[in-house]
Amino acid sequence: MTAQALILFGHGARDPRWAAPFERLQLILREQLPQTRVELAFLEFMSPTLPELVRELAGHGCDDITVVPVFFGQGGHVLRDLPPMVDGLRLAHPGIRLKVAAAVGEDDSVLRTIAAYCVTSMQP
Asked: What is the 3-state secondary structure (H, E, C) of the chain?
């Protein structure tokens, strides 16, 4: 049986309040995906890191993991930092299917939702 996990991967910040929207997104996704572990991981400043979380998930039997970079675009962290990290995780955990999605801000539906928010923010 395949155990699935979805990792929301963010940059991280020194101020813990920065993570609040990520935590809300995590709760929404947990409601929508009750059979899937939905977790947060961070590049820096916050924990767990992506390697720490993948190691934990592997220890709990998750063998199908999707990483969604919650970044507005495919910048340096997504293009330069994430790929070697994922390559190392694939080597360390060869029994896990590890998929990486594009950064959320690259998706047209996300951009349309942000655009709609911008339009409504102009309303009196």
From this structure: CCCEEEEEEECCCCCHHHHHHHHHHHHHHHHHCCCCEEEEEECCCCCCEHHHHHHHHHHCCCCEEEEEECCCCCCHHHHHHHHHHHHHHHHHCCCCEEEECCCHHHCHHHHHHHHHHHHHHCCC
